[in-house]
Specification:
The chain contains 12 helices and 13 strands. With 265 residues, the protein is an alpha/beta fold. It has one domain: Phosphatidylinositol (PI) phosphodiesterase (TIM Barrel). Strands 1, 2, 3, 6, 7, 8, 9, 12 and 13 form a 9-stranded mixed beta sheet that branches. Strands 4-5 form a two-stranded antiparallel ribbon. Strands 10-11 form a two-stranded antiparallel sheet. Helix 6 packs parallel to helix 7. The longest helix is centred in the C-terminal third of the chain and has 13 residues. It is globular, with a radius of gyration of 18 Å. The protein starts with a helix and ends with a helix. The N terminus is likely disordered.
Length: 265
C-alpha cells in the first residue's frame, strides 16, 4: 500500500524523491549517533552513518542572522553550559562554541553538503527556521532526500509549501485526528487527516495512552503512510515494534537497531 501511494504521489507532483528508497526498517539516527560525541554535529552524523543508520534525524532553528542551524534545544545550557539562546547568536558566533571532540554548531547547509548522499529527517523547531531551512535545502538540491516534520502544523505546512515534492510527516494535530479515526474504525477520517502526508512519527506511548498498536499501524498503512516510532533504544522493543508492522525506528542506538535489522533480513 505504501509503495503504491508513493508512485501515485510522484505522478501528481507531490512526493517524488528517494527518501523512502532504502529497504525497511528505516533506522533514523536521533540527532546522529551521539553516544560519545556531541549531538547534531558532523561527527555524530558520520558515526551514525558508519554504524548503519539509513537516515539522520535532526532539528533546525534559526541563528540571529537568519541561518538554519542544527540544534534541538532553544539555548546552549545543556550542551555548552551557557545561558544564552541559539537565536540570539549569529552563525559565526555559534561556530566558535566548543561542544567537545572538536565539534561545534553546524548549519543545515553544511550538513547537507558534508553528507551529499545522506537522507535527513528535519524537525522545524521555530517559525524563524522555516524559510532558512527551505533555502538551505533548495540550494543543496536536497529536496528529494529530506523529510520535513514539525510538532506545529503551521510550521510544517509553510516549510513544505516552499519545497515542492518534499516528503513530510504529520504534525501533532494531524496525527491526533488520524489516531481518533483509527481507534473508531473510521478509515475515511484517517485518510482525510493524513492527506498529503507520507509518514507518522510518534512515540509508542504518550502518558497512559498507548499510541502504537498493531491495529493502529494497519490503519496508518491502509491510509498509505509509514509509521516511525521514537525514541526506541532497547533491542527487545525494536523487535516487538517491527513485529507489529512499524516501518522505522528513531533511535539513539542506531548500532543496535542495525544489528536487529540484520537478524531480520
Amino acid at each position: 500500500m505504501v509503495r503504491r501511494r508513493e508512485i501515485s504521489r510522484a505522478s501528481t507532483g507531490r512526493y517524488a524523491g528517494d527518501y523512502f528508497t532504502p529497504p525497511r526498517p528505516r533506522i533514523l539516527a536521533h540527532r546522529g549517533f551521539a553516544l560519545e560525541v556531541p549531538e547534531n554535529t558532523l561527527l555524530a552524523f558520520l558515526k551514525a552513518l558508519s554504524a548503519g543508520a539509513t537516515h539522520l534525524e535532526t532539528d533546525v532553528r534559526a541563528s540571529a542572522d537568519g541561518v538554519a542551524v542544527l540544534s534541538h534545544d532553544p539555548d546552549l545550557l545543556r550542551l555548552a553550559g551557557r545561558s544564552v539562546r541559539v537565536g540570539d547568536l549569529t552563525m559565526a558566533e555559534l561556530r566558535r562554541i566548543d561542544l567537545g571532540h572538536g565539534q561545534t554548531f553546524v548549519s543545515l547547509a553544511e550538513a547537507l553538503d558534508a553528507f551529499p548522499e545522506a537522507r535527513f529527517n528535519i524537525d522545524i523547531k521555530t517559525a524563524a527556521a522555516e524559510q532558512p531551512a527551505a533555502k538551505a535545502i533548495r540550494d543543496a538540491r536536497g529536496t528529494a532526500r529530506v523529510l520535513i516534520t514539525s510538532f506545529s502544523e503551521r510550521r510544517r505546512r509553510r516549510t513544505v509549501s516552499a519545497l515542492r515534492g518534499v516528503a513530510t510527516s504529520a504534525s501533532v494535530s494531524r496525527f491526533v485526528w488520524a489516531l481518533i479515526g483509527a481507534r473508531l474504525g473510521l478509515a475515511p477520517l484517517v485518510r482525510l487527516a493524513l492527506r498529503s502526508i507520507d509518514a507518522v512519527q510518534v512515540p509508542e506511548r504518550s502518558g497512559i495512552l498507548r499510541v502504537i498498536t498493531p491495529r493502529i499501524v494497519r490503519a496508518m498503512h491502509a491510509a498509505g503512510v509509514e509509521v516511525h516510532v521514537w525514541t526506541v533504544n532497547d533491542p527487545s522493543d525494536m523487535v516487538r515494534l517491527l513485529d507489529a508492522g512499524v516501518d522505522g525506528l528513531v533511535t539513539d542506538r542506531c548500532d543496535l537497531a542495525r544489528a536487529v535489522a540484520i537478524t531480520r533480513s
